[in-house]
Write a structure and sequence with these properties.
eight-stranded mixed beta sheet; N-(1-d-carboxylethyl)-l-norvaline Dehydrogenase, domain 2; Rossmann fold; six-stranded parallel beta sheet; 420 residues; binds nicotinamide-adenine-dinucleotide; 16 strands; alpha/beta
């Protein structure tokens, strides 16, 4: 067996990392505080789309990977990676999960060991929050006694071209030795490592990447609203603009942004700017406002579409396709489709939703989960495509539905199909 690697948090980020490291010969301990998750992992059941259960089972059999919620299992670790959540709580960054994972780790931190933070956070988190906590609790000094660094995760769940292994991995350290130590580790499990000059640069680069996406999505969302009012097909305009081979990147409108990253990460950055500089990050605030209002905008458009057909939204039967925040994932965190369902229900619609990928209950009172069938489609006053999973047969949908409102521009064009 190789070095002992501990991965703190076995979620969308931590599990693919743990599995990749175990497959490369590391002795991997997957530490997780959610008992249900540990139980599933222990019997080789993966809840993360990018990790196949068969892969997991093989690693459990060989002993290369061990899930646990027992802190004593961390004893003697050589390298620990922290991949715990970094949500917002009451409008503020919540670093309590990082602090808790750091507290658990500190007890087992030995001279010569290494710690890498991967959770997304604002610039300063590793140096100002994690380093002092580890130093205080272990009595060891970062850089001098143990290695410490930051390596932001860029995983895009469901993306088969850019996976954990093929996506370049940014690595920074509190000192050159820490950076080299982490670069050696990541270099052994991913195709390319990108050294960042400082930890703050790496932290800033990560939040910049997601803020860039957030702002550009807000731009096309606002454009979609104006284009509709001007009578211009925004999707056709985007296709034409995207033929420019330089200086343009195609983003698409949608019912809002979701997932753990886009709705949250830019706010970590704007919080830090406001906190330290006492001034707002205006682009982030505006993008957040625009993206947040999209579900209500969709409801207004659907209300109008139904009105043209002599139907009020109140009392209408709405069949939503998709609950996840993006296609082919079962992730409903911050999903705009869930917000859409809530708004429609609040307006008095009867809302039914088909999503063959989502197993989790989003906890929306009054929302009825159904299997997609011709009967469901025919009985609906409007079929609302919220998430364009590949599993849906869009050509068949056009043939069976009376009115389709397509938030994703995925359904073939027809007179009774309206796009966002
Ligand atoms: N999901 C993505 O696509 C993605 C992409 C890039 C970066 N990130 C970032 O990576 C981090 C993790 O995200 P995720 O999507 O994997 O979250 P997740 O919720 O899927 O997984 C995190 C796991 O950590 C566990 N956990 C919480 N506290 C713990 C502790 N003290 N010790 C051990 N485990 C603990 C949780 O129970 C959970 O299972 C976040 O900062 C996120 O912003 C996520």
């Amino acid at each position: 067996m190789g070095e002992k690697v501990v991965v703190m948090g076995q979620g969308y980020v931590g599990l693919p990392l743990a599995v990749a490291a175990a497959e490369r010969g590391y002795e991997v301990v997957g530490f997780e505080v959610d008992e249900d998750r540990v139980k599933k992992l222990a019997v080789g059941e993966s809840y993360v789309g990018d990790v196949d259960s068969a892969r997991l089972a093989a690693l459990l059999d060989s002993g290369a990977y061990r899930p646990t919620m027992e802190p004593d299992d961390l004893a003697g670790f050589d390298l620990a990676v922290i991949t715990v959540p970094t949500p917002m709580r009451d409008g503020l960054p919540d670093l309590s999960y990082i602090e808790s994972a750091g507290t658990t780790l500190a007890r087992w931190l030995r001279p010569g060991a290494a710690v890498s933070l991967e959770s997304t956070s604002y610039p300063g988190t590793t140096g100002d929050v994690l380093a002092p906590l580890l130093e205080r609790l272990s009595g060891l000094a970062a850089g001098t006694d143990f290695h410490l660094g930051y390596s932001p995760e860029r995983i895009d769940p469901g993306n088969t071209r850019w996976t954990f292994t093929t996506t370049p991995k940014v690595v920074a350290g509190v000192d050159e030795r820490s950076r080299r130590r982490l670069a050696d580790f990541y270099g052994s499990i991913v195709d390319q490592v990108v050294p960042a000059p400082t930890i703050r640069v790496a932290e800033m680069a990560k939040v910049l990447e997601n803020t860039f996406r957030h702002v550009n999505i807000a731009l096309v969302n606002e454009l979609a609203m104006h284009a509709e009012a001007l009578g211009v097909d925004v999707w056709a305009a985007l296709d034409i603009a995207a033929t420019k081979p330089f200086g343009f990147m195609r983003f698409t409108p949608g019912p809002g942004v979701g997932g753990h990253c886009l709705p949250v990460d830019p706010l970590y950055l704007s919080w830090k700017v406001e906190q330290d500089l006492s001034r707002p990050f205006r682009m982030v605030a505006l993008a957040d406002e625009l993206n947040t209002q999209m579900p209500e905008y969709v409801v207004r458009r659907v209300t109008r579409g139904l009105g043209r057909r002599g139907q009020t939204l109140h009392g209408a039967r709405v069949l939503m396709l998709g609950l996840a925040y993006k296609p082919n994932t079962g992730d409903v965190r911050e999903s705009p489709a869930v917000r859409l369902a809530e708004h429609l229900l609040a307006e008095g619609a009867q809302v039914r939703v088909a999503d063959p990928v989502v197993s989790e209950d989003p906890g929306v009172a009054g929302l009825v989960r159904v299997e997609l069938s011709d009967e469901e489609v025919e009985a609906a006053h409007v079929v609302l495509v919220a998430t364009d999973h590949d599993a849906f047969d869009y050509a068949h949908l056009v043939a069976t539905a009376g009115y389709i409102f397509d938030c994703r521009h995925r359904v073939p064009a027809a007179d009774h199909v309206e796009s966002l």
